[in-house]
Prior knowledge:
CATH architecture: Beta Barrel
Structural class: alpha+beta
Largest sheet: 8 strands, antiparallel, barrel
Number of domains: 1
Order of helices and strands: HEEEEEEHEEE
Number of strands: 9
Strand content: over 45%
Amino acid sequence: MRKLIGLGFLMFILISSTEFTSSKLQKKANTLEGTWELLDRYNYDHGNVSDTLLNTNGYRQIKIYSKGKVMWTRHSPDDPNEWFGYGSYTNTEDHLEERLEYGSESMMAIQDTVRVFQFELNLHQDSYSQISLDENGVRTFSENYKRID
């Protein structure tokens, strides 16, 4: 009986350590799927960060990426305009493209000239930056997000 209990205890330890080790080895791939909140923005000068713009006075911006679709909304107590948009997105490891289909009146005024937004993408598990580039591929501006779901 003693050997049986010892064998059972040994099996329990082996199974427990196997589950712990295998779950530790599985690395979750970085993905945009989820809900994100804007932390801050960077201005670039000659490709280097020159200024950080913090969210102030209750400013909030949220993006939701799900199954190839994107929706974003912005709330700024200092701006009477509504800001939101909806569309599709695709991304690679270092590139993000958003194709907005419709949005608020303020956004639609911009969409008359720009419907496809392309960014350099710097994606991590719980944060990402979408970086605007000029016609020469030099960084000019970025929005920096944190995952909230």
